[in-house]
Amino acid sequence: MDNREVLVDIKNLRTFFYTEDGVVPAVDGIDLTIHRGEVVGLVGESGCGKSVTALSIMRLIPNPPGKIIGGEIFFHGQDLLKKSEEEMRMIRGDKISMIFQEPMTSLNPVYTIGDQISEAITLHQRIDGAEAKKRTIEMIHLVGIPEPERRFSQYPHEMSGGMRQRVMIAMALSSNPELLISDEATTALDVTIQAQILDLMRGLQKKLGMAILIITHNLAVVAEMAETISIAYAGKIVESASAKETFKSPRHPYTYGLLQSIPKFTEKKTNEPLPAIEGMVPSPYHMPKGCRFNPRCPFATEKCREEEPEILELTPGHLVRCFYPIES
Amino acid sequence: MAEKVIEAKKKGQKKSSEDYTYVGMVFHRLTRHKLAMVGAFMLIFILLFVFVGPLVWRANPNEQIEGLGGMFNVPSRAHPMGTDDYGRDVLARMFFGGRISLFIGFISAITSTLIGALVGLVAGYYGGWADDLLMRFTDAMLSIPVFPLLIALASVFGKGVWQIILVIVIFGWMVDARLVRGLVLSLKEQEYVEAAHAIGASANRIMWRHLFPNTLAVLIVSTTIGIGGAIIYEASISFLGFGVQAPFASWGNMLQNAQQFIWNSPRLIIYPGLAIFMTVLGFNFFGDGLRDAIDPKLKL
What's the pTM? Predict the structure, then answer.
């Protein structure tokens, strides 16, 4: 249905962490497709494997204790998991970039903003110092930081959280990546700054045309940004569809529960409590048998407790991992 | 009047850190650090004493005045600090001994800090068996009683300035290694290290460009204190008779030499002792201020 070229194709990715208390299947069979220039949202609760998926794409899983034990991550048709560390280094920051959650600590305190953006540029492009400085100032300007020349020689501690996140974006975009991974990039910011950063990312996406993988637990963020949304639960994708479909007719009970738990302004004032999904995320050491959502699912049957459902394409482009999807 | 005050305040504020280059900022902040300035003046005094002194007072430090009358002279116009047991001019010996002591202090402290930093960085960054190997070796080195081995080494390597430096470095790097390893263990979990990985930086680059500068604040203090320590080490080695050999002077062997005459001529101990004391204290004060000044996060 999407006739753009496939940029990233993740197939049955499995990343486990081997801790002293046992094996944590942080990512246990995630499938994800990102087309060229597409904005994809990966949504889920804490511990569902979103960030681990991102780090797996970058091949930055700390080993030990983490290890990618199976699956494939195709980038331009080439499996990133088969690449050497040296080859990955050429890709990181050049073809695939990443911005992190914590803007206050993601910049090295002993270097100026300019130094750090220049480093990202000179690591991948053969240009001299003056050229790199020029390009750095362009990038600072591009991400909407006023007075780029002055900011160039400032230290991270002289900037606010929002400004630092802009710097991180400038670093990430300095080599014109084809994929930008944003791992909870706006979570640590306050709401007005969040909106500004999202605006900036959307504007830059239109201008530069890179694909973005937005990882968040915040449905409002993906609603605003993403074309396609994948919902992850306990290390697996449970539902994947266009943003419109996801919000209009969620088919998986978990997605449905998530959407129900968002307060709505349009509803009449009632004293009813906000609906919430019962129960807790399962402990990674003791995953439930059958469908991983079954202990919390209002529609679970005996079958759900015994067998694990496969992910199925119900309507074109709408995939659901459930025996009894909610009727649209 | 009030406007003038506000104006003045504005002017004062205008000199924020961004008006300076990094070196300029460090210098500016150092000049405002009282203890560092006290230390700096002590060090400048010592350096002037050692390097400019001989230009003013041109006595030969190794020349002996013959005869009983030349020994143990009290300070006079001919010998401002008197003469020692061989009838040599103490002031001239203080100059040249100081040069040797400072040289040994500088070279050995900086070298051992660099070696320690290298060991600590590799151990902390790579972890695993590299860490175990390097740190157990460090522990082993730390648990060796220094002085007996020092004497043994001195007799193996021979006696001389470079030999002393070698011995001090061999026993001087461990504390820095542990210090840096500990720092790196916490620093490598910082998000900017992950961010550096994410822009495609290599392990070497992350170690030397991203982690090392963040340990500098601690290392500079440790080096400056180390210079003081090395001067004392040199004094101890010389005191035991394995250091800089006669007729050449170092503050350490002047002390050693003077111990026999401690009751008759206490000044022979007081001069070099005071010089070592001032140098070590000066370096410690200055190092403390320098650490505060080079940290861009710290507002002074």
Answer: 0.76
